[in-house]
Amino acid sequence: MRIIRLFVLSALVIVSGIVSANDYPTIETVRYVVNCMVDNGGQNEENLYACTCRFDAISKAVTFQQYEDVSVFVRNKAMPGEKGAVFRDLGNATKGVRAKYEAAVKTAEDNCPIAKRVTRSVKDK
């Protein structure tokens, strides 16, 4: 009986490690989805679905550590002076990860399209 418990506990530890390998913190998920919605016309049901779909696709292709590395690079590479040079110098080191991330984003955009709403104003006669 004790061996069975040990086996089950070991299996749970192994499975939980596998499941959490690409687990993103909730704050990052929310940040991505909200920014995506703002960039694509605002917070509405269609954008929520599409942006969540995109995030899910990206998170399946790129680990959180890779996502974080690319985010830090993109956010800080335009910083002027020596502070920005640190990130610009990392450009070659992060090239492979950035290519993987950009491919994931392209795939996500293709598989989770966002329909642009066209609004027309009614002119007074």
Question: Summarize this, please?
Answer:
By secondary structure, the protein is mostly helical. The protein has one domain.
Explained architecture:
Helix content is 70%, strand content 0%. It has one domain (24-111). With 125 residues, it is mainly alpha-helical. The model is unreliable at 4-19 (pLDDT under 50).
Secondary structure elements and pairings:
Layout: H1 2-19, H2 26-39, H3 45-61, H4 64-76, H5 81-89, H6 95-111
Class by SSE composition? mainly alpha
Q: pLDDT below 50 for ≥5 consecutive residues: which ranges?
A: 4-19
Counted beta strands: 0
- The number of helical runs is 6
Q: Biggest β-sheet: count, sense, barrel?
A: none
* Strand/helix succession: HHHHHH
What is the alpha-carbon Rg in Å?
21 Å
**Helix share, percent:** over 70%
User: Alpha-carbon distance between the termini?
Assistant: 85 Å
Feature tags:
single chain, mainly alpha, 125 residues
